[in-house]
User: Fold this.
Amino acid sequence: MCGIFAFTTKNGKNAAEVLMDGLMSLEYRGYDSAGIFTPESGSIKAVGAAAQLRRKIPAGFFGKSGIAHLRWATHGEPTEQNAHPHQDCSGDVWVIHNGIIENFKALKKKLETLGHTFKSATDTEVLAHLVEEHLKTEKDFTKAALLALNEVKGTYGIAMQYRGDPSRVIGARMGSPVVLGLGEGERFIASDASPILRHTRQVVFLEDGEVASITPESHTIYKLAGTKVSREAEHIDWNAEAAQRGGYDHFMLKEIMEGPEVVENTIRGRLRESEGLAKLGGLESVERDLAKMDRIIIVGCGTAYFAGLTGEYMLEEHAGIPVEVELASEFRYRNPVVNGRTIVLAISQSGETLDTLEAIREGKRRGALTLGIVNTVGSTIARETDAGVYNHAGPEIGVASTKALVSQLSALALLTTFLGRQRGMSAHEGREIARALRALPQQIQAILNTRDGIQKMAKKYKNARDFLYIGRKYNYPIAFEGALKLKEISYIHAEGCGAGEMKHGPLAMIDQKFPTLAIATSDSVYEKMASNMQEIKARKGPLIAIASEGNDEIKQLADDVMYVPKTIEMLQPILNVVPLQLFAYFFAREKGYNVDRPRNLAKSVTVE
Ligand code: F6R
Assistant:
């Protein structure tokens, strides 16, 4: 959940400046405290985000190398004392860490009996002391680090330095991502490529159980056992600006506004419209196996889980294949019935969500074919699944997931067409889906153009303390997603509900102060939605509707209407979710909250 960034150079640059710039682009990974270390100037820490740390750095703070960290607290309060980097007793070994060292209590006890004293309540600090302990007998920093890492159990993405070998940085990965950047006379280690890309596009992804030892002109990768690993560098096309706000007040708004482009990028080169086929290069290696599969279990968390629920409707209705959707955090603790004819499909923007990753591993252990719909290239889920579909949505920085969902739903529509055509979907139906997918970018743009009206609506309802979101069929999961968006950035009570469930309980909550947002676009369940809205109206509940353009009659039922263009029923959620994202965004802004940094949340959940 934290961000790590390390740099070593022979080019005369001040590493402290490079590290601080890098931390700013990693901020979505954590922001409750930050810290930096260079062998020349020592360490500075601050509670809060990277900007707070930057303010504390004195003039003349310098380094030819260094490590820097953004923390999202797991063990120990978000205090300066618990902020990284952590040091050994001598102040020569410094460590930054993303993850959890599970056996830290036992290690700490052992180290204390050996005379080590601890300054923080973190699990991370034990590593610095362990390295210090090994340096007593093993003078080589890389070897001492390897010995220490072999004693540690848990998850980590790590960077560490030793004043006795100041131009070297050791990186290590076990369950938390680590990327090396290879520049001219300089090397980088980071949690992801975003802080590296402004310096170099050549990167190497570490695998779990690997340790990298870098100097300005070299990088060597080892297995934990000490054997060397050779790995080719990869070229990354994303530029660093792609991860910046691009003129909008918040990443969240920028990312909602990217919707049309995101759909275009997700479907680009993947539709053979005249034949009604989807061409998914990432599935080619398993194409034949896929034809034999008789069941899909989709796993994901949060927004990705709601994408999966919507996918269930698409896949069952159009591809005729039974689908179950499971919260990844539940799947891994059940005793799921999975066999060689089961697909376990993970949906994940980051590709690093630990529960989703573990669900995939569980599926694999039980013999399933594993697939991923993943946005982050080279992420752990992308690499551990047998095959998959990349979203190509570009980096998503806003903590609240928006463009990733639009892309995940588009990718699910592609997958539905792909699997459907293997199972008797007609070319005509395939063509209809392809045509409708191609029309989506323009339709999303039309919704985005109505954002001023949605902003006014958010203002009108800004004092509501509760919100109910209702929908049916394809829009049932979207009701849950709308509620999730509102609660995570506005901190108010919002609930999703299948509209058919209203009379079974939730209707009791409705009164003049309890607004409902009804997703009521013209589809096969519209009449049913309209009667649910009548029931709410009869209880004097304020009503906002999402309706299809041209439906004037709905104004007699709803106090306010957000209109969206019409598409085929299975793709309608991709349009309907956009006004819900905008409504949540403007609502949170009315409340004055920093929507890109909702309290208590971070972008990528790499712990349970
Ligand atoms: C909500 C949100 C989260 C994520 C969830 C899964 O706006 O962002 O619910 O959707 O943590 O994350 P990924 O997709 O990275 O696995």
About this structure: Residues 120 and 556 are 62 Å apart (CA to CA). The chain has a mean pLDDT of 94. Residues 253-447 form a domain with the Rossmann fold fold (CATH 3.40.50.10490). The chain has three domains: 3-247, 253-447, 450-590.
